[in-house]
Write a structure and sequence with these properties.
Chain A has about 200 residues and is an alpha/beta fold. Helix content of chain A is about 35%, strand content about 20%. The radius of gyration of chain A is 16 Å and the shape is globular. The mean pLDDT of chain A is about 95.
Chain lengths: ~200, ~200
Amino acid sequence: MANTIGILLFDDVEELDFAGPWEVFSATAQQLFPDDRVVTIAQELRPIRCAKGLRVLPDVDFTTAPPLDLVLVPGGQGTRREVSNPTLIGWLREAGQRCRWVTSVCTGALLLHEAGFAKGRRVTTHWAFVETLRQRGDVTVLENRRYVRDGNVVTAAGVSAGIDLALWLVGQIHGIDVARKVQRGIEYDPAPPYAAEV
Amino acid sequence: MANTIGILLFDDVEELDFAGPWEVFSATAQQLFPDDRVVTIAQELRPIRCAKGLRVLPDVDFTTAPPLDLVLVPGGQGTRREVSNPTLIGWLREAGQRCRWVTSVCTGALLLHEAGFAKGRRVTTHWAFVETLRQRGDVTVLENRRYVRDGNVVTAAGVSAGIDLALWLVGQIHGIDVARKVQRGIEYDPAPPYAAEV
């Protein structure tokens, strides 16, 4: 069964928030499931300027996006603006309702919440935005988790946690053996060189 | 002291090979060292089509690239072609000679070797290309290391190992406390969901 995976892009999206899951999903498609398709989706077909300055060309816009089986909403500074963008939130609400999986990384959870998917659910987000998300109401925000699954809504912590999320989702969609192969392919056997500041 | 960090791009570059280090270096610059500059560099100023299909606009080309303190060479399918591209190898040889750090991720080590930087050195690369790199001669290729430092040449294993490499380099350039802050900022506290296939 072919899967279509859509990754939402917008100006000031955080680079690794989407590039990590992009790598995991598209490596799965390219190497093992060539009928799967991974597309980047933006409101308009013009270059996206990411939060750290990388410029990316989206594959499709809201009017040409294919029906999705999984939508992934990254975070980044741009979410502060996009949470009040009715066009983006409206597209997300509609596209997500037809998805098997509705997912976010980092502050992408704020957009999921605005579109209605996080309400009444257990979710997570970047550690620095836990209170911000709680204040939006009707949501249980868990801390110190790489990702949280509640029904078909799966939300990851900050930035690099999107890699863990995407691997977990590949395991759900295609089986754990496939996820292991992909993990081995991208050598995701991480060893952070210094202990993180706490 | 301001640092200029250049990330080489070419068609069929592996997305996470460069996006991981890009995130680490540019988060450091944006949040802590605004005089640092991180630029993507390609032979020509046209969109790069990455190995998995993501399209990225490079910041500068070989003629407009600023002098670099650190050059990072990602890997990907495109290295098979670029290893025989005298323009790219020539640019890398010249730019690298003036760098404090000459670095690669994944099969980017093949390009470093062709440009002369890996000869007689201890290096690493993606696990599936260890023999390929050894066969190019006059190099010691270590296995099962996230990254290897030999003098000013630092090479990472496959794909995701570039994140570890970049954090280590930030620790060398700006101190370990800075690297810890960046690591915490991108929540690099990884937890792969399944054991990797071995």
